Amino acid sequence: MPAISEVLARIEARQEPEAIEAASALELLQAVYRSTRLPLAVRMRAAIEALPFESAKLSAVAVLPAGDFADRLERAIARSGVKVIDAVRLPQQE
User: Fold this and answer.
1) What is residue 36's DSSP assignment?
2) What span, in angstroms and rounded, lies between the C-alpha atoms of 7 and 12?
3) What would the pLDDT profile of 59-81 be if each residue is shown by its tens digit?
4) What are phi and psi for residue 64, nearest 5 degrees?
C-alpha cells in the first residue's frame, strides 16, 4: 500500500499545469487552449485570442473601373429610361 505522502505527491503532480514551451505567441496560445489541465475559462480566452490568426477574416471589396461612381450612376439612369423627378424644397411655414 502506498504511503500517504506518495499519494499526495501524485495528486499535486496532476494539479500542476504542464510546462508549455512555444516558439511564438500563437504557438503558446494554441498550447494553452489545447491543454486539458488548465481551467476552461483560461482555455477559452486563449482560443478567442488565437482565432484571428488561425482563420481568415471575411471582407468584401469592390473594384470599379475608371470613372467615378456618380458618372456611372448617371449613365445607368439614362440607359434605364426612368423619369427622374428633381425635388424642390418648399419654404417652411411658421
Assistant:
1) S
2) 9
3) 888 777 767 888 888 888 888 88
4) -105, 140
Q: How far is CA 93 from CA 24, 25, 74, 78, in A?
A: 69, 66, 34, 36
Please answer whether residues 35 and 20 qualify as being in contact, where contact means their C-beta atoms are separated by less than 8 angstroms: yes
Assessment of whether the complete model's pTM goes beyond 0.90: no
In this structure, the number of other CB atoms found within 10 A of the CB of residue 74 comes to: 11
Residues 14 and 17: their CA atoms lie apart, in Å, by 8
Q: Give the C-alpha separation, 26 to 32, whole Å.
A: 10
Helices (H), 1-94: 4-15, 25-34, 40-54, 69-80
Whole-angstrom Cα distance, residue 15 to residue 39? 11
